[in-house]
Design a protein that fits this description.
Layout (H helix, E strand, L loop, with lengths): L10 H29 L20 E6 L7 E11 L9 E6 L2 H6 L9 E4 L2 E10 L7 E6 H6 L16 E2 L12 E2 L2 H6 L9 E4 L2 E6 L3 H12 L3 E5 L2 E2 L13 E9 L2 E12 L2 E4 L8 E16 L6 E16 L4 E5 L6 E9 L2 E9 L6 H16 L6 E11 L5 E7 L9 H16 L8 E12 L3 E9 L3 E2 L4 E10 L5 E8 L7 E8 L1 H6 L2 H7 L1 H4 L5 E2 L2 H9 L6 E8 L3 E4 L2 E3 L4 H7 L2 H4 L4 E4 L2 E9 L3 E3 L1 E8 L1
Parallel strand pairs: 10-11, 12-17, 19-23, 24-35, 25-36
Antiparallel strand pairs: 1-2, 1-4, 2-3, 3-6, 4-5, 5-6, 5-9, 7-29, 8-9, 10-14, 13-14, 13-16, 13-20, 14-15, 15-18, 16-17, 17-18, 19-20, 21-22, 21-23, 24-26, 26-27, 28-30, 28-36, 30-34, 31-32, 31-33
Helix pairs in contact: 5-6, 6-7
Length: 633
């Protein structure tokens, strides 16, 4: 044997060389053995489909999900059986038991829904269900892949045309909650489940990550989101640009509800990919059917194990496309252009400092108003530096394409209740937003929302304590003075003089004068009745014929920081669509109230008419009312 120099080798040298060779061979073998399972960490790029009728109890399979980081990890599972019609007619579920140390430790994790399940190298479905009762075993349900693939067969939504006839408004929000699927008794018994309550399966919750949110805001709205099948997770963030996991089966993907200075996104697992199309979750995200929801990358920070329910914490990454279907068996998205969202500019002014936030929210009638509520509430909490009483002055507008702007202008004073005073602002904006989104005429194309809320110290309010007129008898065209005693909160009384001119066409006889806040005067006239449900509570049904009419009614509402003086006469007012017709003659009432006319629209009568009205701006919220009487000679 020769060395590299060409000379003979000694015995000791031969022994040393052999040892080195053996060591190198062992290291190479170890490297090869380590490399084989590393390649198995990734699910197949393309896999054949395993039909449901070929799935049998006792089969072993592998599922993939991300427990932390960006790479999917495998975990084993065993098929316990197929539960026919569990979710409904011809909606079967594959019941499985998760195996392995990690899966046994965490159980079925919120955010694991959509994890692809492979049996004999073929894609059988996606993990989608968990037990809704405490159980020591990690048992879950798998949505068959053929059910998921059918979701992509639904076409895009048809454009919503403007309504041409009168439509009744129903702005009541739809309530929903995750469904429960009871296990058959014999199945539960075979698994050794003898709980006091019959075991049932529920869709695996979707972790809803809140970034840039005060914990109090998340806690306040967590219940509303849990009814939609979400687990509110505080502490997630926004991933760095370009960051996020792979968009392949087993990777993480998020449906984005809010993006910008505040971020909300629900994360689940990708089940299947075909070119630029993705299938995920294995169950609905919100169950909205045809949608245009932003689709984003997601980065799993960690998986938190809990006896109450394990969940993933994630960072929401770049928006990379649009979810187009949100249905019973899956959500389906397409990589590409993002969908349109509603831009919001929120400015909060407190103690001379301005807090500015820019974000965009997901457009949908059932959810957008709630997203507005939580983001505004969160901004107000960030601006509050103590628990002292604060008065809120709201100004803003909603800009719509092809329609007048919706004006937001009001003032809100704190109360003595334990209810958060900031919610008066939230409720006002949210209610307006719901009216626009739930209108039955056309889908509103909201270009942007501009809001400014000024936080004023202390309770800025004054109550109407007394009122009188300068004379009790007047002539048509004459001006009288109404004096109003206002009592500010913990302040000295103020006497406010309001000049009031009696119209030249005023009828002779007795008139009533109402000195009032905005709330009562709105209730006594059409604006509040037609747009907040007062008429419906009174047993009336009112109809509008266009979005412009609805906007007109909203913009006519009176604001709480003004003192109103209105003169009423005992002649009827007809409220027809968005029109207020005072002092309607009886002959016209008979025509407008005829059956043929009511087939086109409906009307409401109020026994009095406002003859004239005056308003005095105030820097405080006005409350209370006072009635006076004058006689026209």
């Amino acid at each position: 044997m020769m060395d590299f120099s060409g000379g003979p080798l000694q015995d000791s040298q031969v022994t040393t060389q052999l040892r080195r060779t053996l060591i190198l061979l062992c290291l190479a073998a170890l490297a090869l053995s380590a490399a084989a399972p590393a390649r198995a960490q990734h699910p197949p790029a393309r896999a054949d489909i395993l039909p449901l009728d070929q799935v049998k109890p006792g089969m072993r399979g592998t599922a993939y999900t991300i427990f932390a980081g960006r790479e999917a990890e495998p975990f084993e599972l065993e098929v316990l059986g197929v539960l026919p019609n569990l979710l409904g007619p011809k909606q079967d579920i594959i019941l499985v038991r998760l195996l392995g140390e990690k899966a046994t430790y965490t159980g079925v994790v919120a955010g694991m829904s959509g994890s692809p399940v492979y049996i004999d190298g073929k894609l059988a479905g996606a993990l989608s269900l968990r037990f809704g009762a405490f159980t020591k075993e990690p048992i879950g349900g798998v949505t068959p892949i053929e059910y998921m693939l059918r979701v992509a067969e639904f076409g895009p939504p048809a454009p919503r045309a403007a309504s041409t006839g009168p439509v009744e408004i129903d702005a009541s929000p739809a309530e929903t909650s995750p469904p429960r699927y009871p296990l058959p008794t014999e199945v539960a018994s075979s698994l050794g489940l003898r709980a006091a309550v019959q075991p049932y399966l529920v869709p695996i919750e979707t972790p809803l990550t809140f970034s840039g949110f005060d914990p109090r805001a998340v806690a306040r709205f967590a219940g509303e989101f849990s009814q939609l099948g979400f687990v509110a997770v505080q502490g997630g963030g926004t991933a760095a640009p370009g960051a996020g996991g792979s968009l392949e089966p087993g990777g993480a993907v998020a449906g984005v509800l809010v993006t910008g200075d505040m971020t909300i996104g629900g994360t689940c697992t990708i089940s299947y990919r075909d070119a630029d199309q993705l299938w995920a979750c294995g169950h609905p995200l919100l169950g909205l059917g045809n949608v245009e929801m932003p689709m984003a990358r997601a980065e799993i920070v960690t998986t938190v194990a809990s006896d109450l329910g394990s969940f993933k914490m994630s960072n929401i990454g770049d928006i990379i496309g649009t979810f187009q279907q949100d249905r019973r068996s899956a959500i389906v998205g397409r990589i590409g252009a993002p969908p349109p969202m509603v831009p919001v500019d929120l400015t909060l002014v407190s103690n001379g400092r301005a807090f500015r936030y820019h974000y965009e929210i997901f457009q949908h009638p059932k959810l957008s108003a709630t997203l507005m509520d939580i983001t505004i509430f969160n901004g107000l909490l960030a601006a509050l530096e103590s628990s002292e009483e604060v008065t809120y002055r709201l100004k803003g507008r909603v800009v719509l394409a092809g329609h007048p702007d919706v004006i937001l202008d009001d003032m809100f004073s704190p109360t003595d209740s334990f209810f958060s005073d900031a919610f008066w602002v939230v409720a006002s904006v949210g209610q307006t937003f719901r009216r626009l989104f739930n209108n039955p005429f056309e889908s509103p194309d909201i270009q942007r929302i501009e809001l400014q809320v000024e936080l004023l110290p202390d309770r800025q309010t004054a109550s109407i304590e007394n009122a009188w007129v300068s004379k009790s008898e007047v002539r048509p065209g004459e001006t009288l003075t109404v004096k109003v005693v206002l009592r500010p909160y913990r302040g000295p009384r103020i006497v406010q003089e309001v000049p009031l001119t009696i119209p030249a066409h005023a009828p002779r006889g007795d008139l009533r004068i109402l000195v009032s806040d905005a709330s009562l005067l709105n209730r006594l006239t059409s604006s509040l009745m037609l747009t907040t449900g007062f008429a419906a509570q009174a047993g009336f049904r009112l109809r509008l014929t266009s979005l412009d009419q609805l906007i007109s009614l909203i913009n006519r509402e009176r604001t709480s920081d003004q003192l109103y003086v209105a003169v009423f006469q005992p002649t009827p007012t007809m409220l027809l669509e968005d029109k207020v017709l005072p002092s309607v003659p009886l002959s016209q009432i008979n025509v407008l109230n005829s059956d043929s006319f009511l087939r086109q629209g409906e009307s409401l009568f109020y026994p009095q008419s406002i003859l004239t009205e005056a308003a005095v701006p105030h820097g405080q919220v006005i409350t209370g009312s006072y009635w006076l009487a004058v006689t026209v000679r």
